[in-house]
Amino acid sequence: MIREPGKRSYRIAAPVESSAAQVSPPTPTPSPDQSASRLFTVLKELKANNVPWAEILERVRHEFGVELTKDQVKTLVR
Predict the structure, then answer these.
(1) Region entry Disordered: which residue ranges (predicted)?
(2) Helices (H), the chain
(3) Which residues fall within 8 angstroms of residue 31, CB to CB, at 6 or more apart?
(4) Is residue 77 a contact partner of residue 44, using CB atoms and an 8 Å limit?
């Protein structure tokens, strides 16, 4: 293949067959219940058992992935 100076050559790729039909969708992994109703239930149980605020805040952060302040948790528990 002879190329003229200053000209670019391009190679056209052959069409690729879609393998999407052959791949099955990933099976969903069961995730823990992170619903608001469960959060309220956990908060009320912890408060009823006189668990310290720091521990309640840490558990909410760990189990629900939400960082709340002490005042926010107090409001939710009422």
Answers:
(1) 1-35
(2) 36-48, 53-64, 70-77
(3) none
(4) yes
